[in-house]
Fold each of these.
Amino acid sequence: MLADHGSDAAVVAGGTDLFPNMKRRQQTPRVVIGLRRLPELKRVGNGAEVTVGAGLTLAEVASSRQLRETYPALAVAARLVSTPHLRTMGTLGGNLCLDTRCNYYNQSYQWRKAVNFCMKKDGEICLVAPGSHRCWAVSSSDTAPVLWSLGAKVRLVGPKGERVIPISALYQDDGIQYLSKQPGEVLTDIVLPPAEGWRSSYLKLRRRGSFDFPVLGVAVALRMEGDTVKEAAITLGAVASQPRPAPDAAALLVGQRLSPELIERVAEAAYRPSKPLDNTDLTHPYRKKMTRVFVARALKGLAGL
């Protein structure tokens, strides 16, 4: 059906992102193809690698005992998305493919028309950075930074077959073309590496304690041998058009024991790649400063400090 209808078609699982966008005329498909009743998209497989169906609702991910015990940051991220009503409808795959957001884009049609629209939809310039050639809308997925830090892969299925790619290859640093997923492809599975030895954490900054999208997300994953960090990953959310890894900060952890002094140095290093713009809630200087605070909190939580 996707191949038949091409750019006129869109897929929908929970609809918590697509339907509001359609109401605001940000997305205008002529054909909407439902995925919700495909049982193949709702399975959780066991094995050396754990396969999680993209059609699982966020509520199911958050309440899964298996995922809470093995990949706790993923369960936490799913639980922090929006409200109970939307988590019951919204899916893991939908949150990974969430449309990028911006104060100038996520408005009613009449509001956007009054400012002559923006580059992401119907306009010609980015109203956040008028001199830029690209859109700076923000990646606001809660689960994407976590899965990036965990080293997950995703399976994409389309008319030309299927392919499995690292989740880092799914995202592009462009507010319009933010996914590398091809138009005829459906995200069907998330493949998680073995969890043995790994600890993970996710913290989310937002104005209210529920409903709001993140204005900063911090995902940390550590593979421990005793008290020593053997592998580490830190990924920031809602500071760019894709999740933003902080490899220099993570490298400081490898081979070290977690201490207050080390955590402060790592938090300072993670602060540098965080470059939010003035295109979402709260001021961007504050969001950048909070990167240091949230990375430190996440590491202290994992260290039990």
Amino acid sequence: MLPVAIRDALVAHARAEHPNEACGVIGGTSPAADGGTATRWHPTRNRAASPLRYEIHPDDLLRVMLEIDDAGEVPWGIVHSHVRSPARPSPTDVGLAHYPDSLYLIVSLAVDEADPATGAESVRAWRIVDGSSFEVALEAAPGG
């Protein structure tokens, strides 16, 4: 489950970092693969500062992972945005996926990917394990 407030915050971060890809980590009660719930959004800097790829800044990654561990949580999701492409993992994204128990959430800022009824950005979740990716339905939850 992804609280609406967290979804809104990661979309806002993606917009704020445009024209570069944004990135961050979501902490949760237990791994997403085990049915855990997202509890906290941790925006990070994109060390690559690129519209084509992301790299969570190592200082931010260390800080966030310590905060998540200190809170008794786990990395529930790894987030980044795609500036002009669909919210699907690229071959680069798949190759750099190092957290098999976490979801990989991608926010697409591409206009043609937005919800036709609401205009909301596309946010999709993926499991990436051993070089393969498959989509996971995101359930919205109140709170955040």
Amino acid sequence: MEKPLTSRIALVTGASRGIGYAAARALAKQGAHIVAVARTQGGLEELDDEIRKDGGSATLVPLDLTDFDGIARLGAALHERHGKLDILVGNAGTAGPSSPLGHIDLKPWNEVIAVNVTANFQLIRCMEPLLKKSDAGRAVFITSAAANKALAYRGPYSASKAALETLVRVWANETASTPIRVNLFSPGPIRTRMRAIVFPGEDPMTLETPEQVAEFIVPMCAPAWGETGKFYDYKTRTLQDFRAPE
């Protein structure tokens, strides 16, 4: 029996571990060919091994997403090889420093903005033409409750996720009359390396796994998914509209 995502091309960033790794595997199990992007060659090769064991296929792209020209070259390569892109999962992110704003140097601030915001802007610019070539282009970006909680000492990360949310919502509005569907996904506290770095005292075994999260990302990447400009809150398992402050 043909799998639901057979012949669909899925680009996943931050695919060498955590939610990106789990999402790439889950999409591959449904038949998608995975274009796996990450800085870590070893992690990508491990992912490729697992995808092959599951009977799937992947193209490995070792790339630092702050190489914005590299993202453009990737878009050109995908156009040449596949002529389209069906699924974009913008998962890669960096936690940044945990310090008062006045104690943070410009360099780490710029690094967080580059990975969490500018790289996703460049992905949108370079992948939109390919998504438009798909009969049902789907994009999902991973956000965080930090975007609206404005937690003390988490300034760069919180600001970057707030910017990402606005960026993605603008893109959803711009593509609303096209077949492209663009949404945000907030996983909440999940058993990842980034979470362990930010909350070192937390027992990871009390948290849900990236694999559990991935099962909810996959439907948002399918042609049957019709919502756009929405926010999926994994913690409450609800798809939400954005509401302006009253």
Amino acid sequence: MLELRQIEREILAKGRVDSHDLEVLRRQLYADGKIDRRGADFLVELHKRVQHRTPAFEQFFYQAIKDHILADGRIDAEETAWLRRMLFADGKIDDEERKFLHELKGEARQESPEFEALFKDCMNRPPEQHTCGGRKT
């Protein structure tokens, strides 16, 4: 975890995750062949704090979280509660998070009733509003 904190400081100082950082994160977080809850928690915090999220970092982030949640092929009630906290940390569900939930649902072999409720809740929320001026309404 110490090396992860060092890479976190470097990333936050730059404000973005470059390809070298992604490789270091991948090696550290998947050191045992899978990403554990501590690694997933670290990644969620990093994702919140990075100023400029590159497409490569977004892809890595959502894949790593999916790998963590689907390690046993199931999405249970506890994992759903963790997902709910992660997804609603900013009080909204964006397009990328909706896509992520669809992928989770499609790849899970078994889903808890709690996940079904979370999925429906997120899909029933209004979609993001995009304007030409770059401001969200």
